[in-house]
Structures are given as structure tokens and as C-alpha cells.
Amino acid sequence: METTMSVLATQLRAWAQDLGFGALTIADVQLGDAESGLQQWLDAEYHGEMDYMARHGMKRARPAELVPGTLRVVSVRMNYWPDAAPAERVLCDDGLAYISRYALGRDYHKVLRARLQRLADRLVAAAPSSYRVFVDSAPVLEVELGTRGGLGWRGKHTLLIDRTAGSYFFLGEIYTDLPLPVGDRVGAHCGRCEACIDACPTGAIVAPFRLDARRCISYLTIEHPGSIPMEFRSLIGNRIYGCDDCQLVCPWNRFAVVTDEPDFKVRHGLDAPGLVALFAWSAEDFRERTAGSPIHRIGHERWLRNVAVALGNSSGGAEVVAALKARAHDDSPLVREHVAWALGRLIE
């Protein structure tokens, strides 16, 4: 059996490569020593309004509770960094909108899940078994599992890093009841570097390996449903969907390569769009131009909220002020509030 599982693991890695994954590793499900850190993070309320994080509790660290019978977790990664306008150039131009580079193409949930399903189909055909496929869709400690299997190490920004691929990649998992051989951890290579901590605009990385989501621009522009706290609005700059700053400064991302996955190519010129043009989008425009994109799930109201904040952080000018005034009486109280804030900054 051991020899058979070893051969199967080798086959899995080859199949994963054929399906476009950058790497595949296997971990066991004994994550008990990760529970205290998870509980401390929840107790500190660093999850903000992501209630599902607390609701699932320790199930996130107990794969066999999530999927009974699970013995191993197969983790994969897929590069997403697109051939796009240079991130630094967009961030330095306050008339443009910055969108996190992972969100410029097709929704990664759909892409990875389809590929993982094909990988799982091959696995089951070779060795009949039970499994579940997950792509950021269940209480899974994906970075912890990836770390234990040798997919990379946890960086001080809490993301997974690989020496040959940096950190610009998505993760996905297959929970299986097959006793596959587990991989070996790799050493951590952050050393004394704290570039990611220093670069965070809002100080969300409160300590090495500790992220307060309530301060994170990705959380504020994507997960947070209501009014963006005043203390963070000016710090958000022109970032209207997510933030890449902690990764942009990571020395290991000099080894990251541009993805060759067609689904992750830039859509609708969203790698360097003008803020005023985006603020003019109707609800129908938003639906049409973000269909099939991860951006779609925040909805038109949050989109306008985020763009209003970015406009308030811009150099202003007649065009910007006119665009904001055009939505000063928007049907949404949330949008009106952020428009008023932006106008207050631009008109003295």
C-alpha cells in the first residue's frame, strides 16, 4: 500500500502540472498546534465583520470534522500575476484606480475549482476514494496546510511564499481519505526582513504573522459592508478593490513570473482605469463589466463607495468635483456619505 500511495503521489504531481498548477504538496490533518493561534486571533476580533470565521470556530483546524474520514489534504497553487500596467505606476497616479492584480481576470474560484475537480477525477479513477474539493469556499487553514506539506512558508504578512514563485498565487485543496505520503516542510526565508510590515498603508500587520483584518485595505474595500472608518479613508489612496502593497515590496516576488493562464488576463482595461470613468458606471455597467470576475460580488454600491474614497484622495479638479456632485444625491445613504466626505476634502 505504501509503495502504491507513493507512486500515486508522484502521478498526482505530474497531473497537476498538466492542469496548469505550479506545484502540489500533501499534508496530514493533525493541526492541533495551530488551534491556539487561531483562537487568539478570533478572541482579538481581528476577523472584523467576517462572522463566518468565528462561526466555524476550530473546525477550520480540524479537517476530519469538516469532511469525516479525511486523512490527507492535497494542496495546489496556481500563479495569477498578469501582464498588466505596472502596479507601482498606477498607485502613484491618483487619477487612476488600483485594483488588486489577482482580480483583473476571471474569478479564480471558478478556474481553480474546475481544474481541481479534474485532478480529483483522475485521483479517484486511479484509486477509488472519497474526497472534497475546496477553493476558498469552506473553513480551511489553507496557508497552514500548504506550509505543512512544503508548498512554501508563511510570510510575516501571513501569506504563503515560495522561493521560486514568490507569493502571487492562488491555493486550492482536495480533502481525501487516501493515506498518501506527506511532504516535508520547507524552511522559512524571511529572516529579519519586515518590508511587508513597513509597507502596509494602514498598519494592518500588527506584528509578524499577525494581521488585523479590520485595518486591512483588502478587508475594508471587499469584505466590509458598511461605512469605511474615517481613520482609514485617506490611507486607502486610490485602491478601490484590494491591496497588494505587502506583496509588492517582498523581495521574493522578484522571482514571480507572469501567468500564462488565459483566464487571468486583464479584462476591460481594469489594470489602469480612470477613477472618474469608473464612478460613472451604472449598476448595469457594473454587472456587465465585472461578470465572471471576483469584483462582481461586492456589488455596485460598495464599488461606488470605494471609488468615492479614491476620488476624495485624488488631486481633485473640476472633472472630479463634477463627478462627485453628480452622485451627491445617490439613492444609497452609504454612497452619499462617502461622496460628501470626498467633496469635503476637495472643496474648502
From TrEMBL:
The Swiss-Prot or TrEMBL record lists the needed cofactor(s) as:
[4Fe-4S] cluster; cob(II)alamin
Is Iron-sulfur one of the keywords?
yes
**Protein residues bound to cob(II)alamin:** R60, D136, L160, L171, S218, C243, D244
What GO molecular functions are on record for this protein?
Answer: 4 iron, 4 sulfur cluster binding; cobalamin binding; epoxyqueuosine reductase activity; metal ion binding
List locations, semicolon-separated: Cytoplasm
Q: Name one GO cellular component term.
A: cytoplasm
InterPro entries cross-referenced by the UniProt entry: 4Fe4S_Fe-S-bd, 4Fe4S_Fe_S_CS, ARM-like, QueG, QueG_DUF1730
Q: Give the pathway listed in the UniProt entry for this protein.
A: tRNA modification; tRNA-queuosine biosynthesis
- PROSITE patterns attached to this UniProt entry: 4FE4S_FER_1 (PS00198), 4FE4S_FER_2 (PS51379)
Q: What is its main location?
A: cytoplasm
Q: Which UniProt keywords apply?
A: 4Fe-4S, Cobalamin, Cobalt, Cytoplasm, Iron, Iron-sulfur, Metal-binding, Oxidoreductase, Queuosine biosynthesis, tRNA processing
Q: Which residues form the 4Fe-4S ferredoxin-type domain?
A: 179-210
UniProt KW Iron-sulfur keyword: yes
Q: How does it assemble?
A: Monomer.
Family, according to the entry, reads as follows:
Belongs to the QueG family.
Q: What does this protein do?
A: Catalyzes the conversion of epoxyqueuosine (oQ) to queuosine (Q), which is a hypermodified base found in the wobble positions of tRNA(Asp), tRNA(Asn), tRNA(His) and tRNA(Tyr).
What is the protein name stated in its UniProt record? Epoxyqueuosine reductase
Species of origin reads Parazoarcus communis SWub3 = DSM 12120
